[in-house]
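request received
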Amino acid sequence: EIVMTQSPATLSVSPGERATLSCRASQSVSSNLAWYQQKPGQAPRLLIFGASTRATDIPARFSGSGSGTEFTLTISSLQSEDFAVYYCQQYNNWPPKTFGQGTKVEIK
Amino acid sequence: EVQLVESGGGLVQPGGSLRLSCAASGFTFSSYSMNWVRQAPGKGLEWVSYISTSSSTIYYADSVKGRFTISRDNAKNSLHLQMNSLRDEDTAVYFCARDGGSFAYWGQGTLVTVSS
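response:
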């Protein structure tokens, strides 16, 4: 089973600042990596698939990069609605399609 | 518009059973594989089970293997999860999610609480 490790666990950022979230896979997942955003009481929302392709209706301030074992989600200028928990997920070697433990982006 | 609506959650005693359903609309259900994903209170996301379009391929997480059964009815656009021998650690919100490699569409979830 591929283990996904996200860092940091919590990221404190001021509105308008840039946020950089990391995700590491225990072995290569090629570019088969997705990022999700989840707000309290809501289902996860797909942000990025294929490591760098934005999903439908996702703002351009969200960008993904990386391949193999190291991945990054960048939010270029945080808006109030971006404070949430973010998960990465690999879908290269499955089952299972494993998720990271999440990074909480909170207001500084 | 793609919609996935879960139902069937509730309070059940340890060792009991529950059957979850997911009603799909807004897309050709029979053309997509489906998944169940769960989230324990205050915890992260855990993939639970996968079923292919024709039900010919099914996978389970080790944590539920032998206790949970996934199924689908393409004629009724519905996905199911039969959960037996429930344990305290199965307490979670259960989401159904449409497969496409990643999971672009999710239901709102249904809460399962296992407690005596």
